[in-house]
């Protein structure tokens, strides 16, 4: 992932390492696996029986995930759906610990930028934050759902 101008073939996509945070993020795991990424783990924030759905992916409790190497320089991607303050706190802690190359977090569309920034206040001087609102309809969906990403 050092040269982002290189287009990845289907075979090369398995070099993209992905970590998924939380029970509300199962679709991110499916999408990443279907795209061809190497899904390293799904962090199970509450023991919600995800292991019956994802036996082929490693499920880790939050405290175990905090110790997942490499700490402070993960060259992969973190994906998460943030639904509440607990999800935000877990994502904030893991992202601060892992320091991933890229984090993509989706939040409810009715959250203001201010609320999102407050809940996801991650200290990283080198990070660049982009925030935009998408509706399901705008990306080809048929529902009226909206997210802040």
Structure characterization notes:
The chain has 149 residues and is of the alpha/beta class. Helices cover 23% and strands 22% of the residues. The protein has four helices and seven strands. A seven-stranded mixed beta sheet has the order 3-2-1-4-5-7-6, with helices on both faces. Strand 4, helix 3 and strand 5 form a beta-alpha-beta unit. The longest helix is centred in the middle third of the chain and has 14 residues.
The poorly predicted ranges are: none
Largest sheet, spatial ordering of strands: 3-2-1-4-5-7-6
Instruction: List the secondary-structure elements in sequence, H or E.
Output: EHEEHEHEHEE
Class inferred from helices and paired strands: alpha/beta
- Sketch the major β-sheet: 7 strands, mixed
Proportion of beta-strand residues: 15-25%
| Intertermini distance | 22 Å
Number of helical elements: 4
Global morphology: globular
- Helical content stands at 10-25%
- What number is the mean pLDDT? 78
Oligomer classification: single chain
How many distinct beta strands? 7
Layout of helices and strands:
Blueprint lengths: L16 E5 L4 H10 L2 E7 L14 E3 H4 L11 E5 L3 H14 L3 E7 L4 H7 L13 E3 L10 E3 L1
Parallel strand pairs: 1-2, 1-4, 2-3, 4-5
Antiparallel strand pairs: 5-7, 6-7
Summarize the structure.
The chain is of the alpha/beta class.
Question: Features of this protein?
Answer:
7-stranded mixed sheet, 23% helix, 4 helices, alpha/beta, globular, 149 residues, single chain
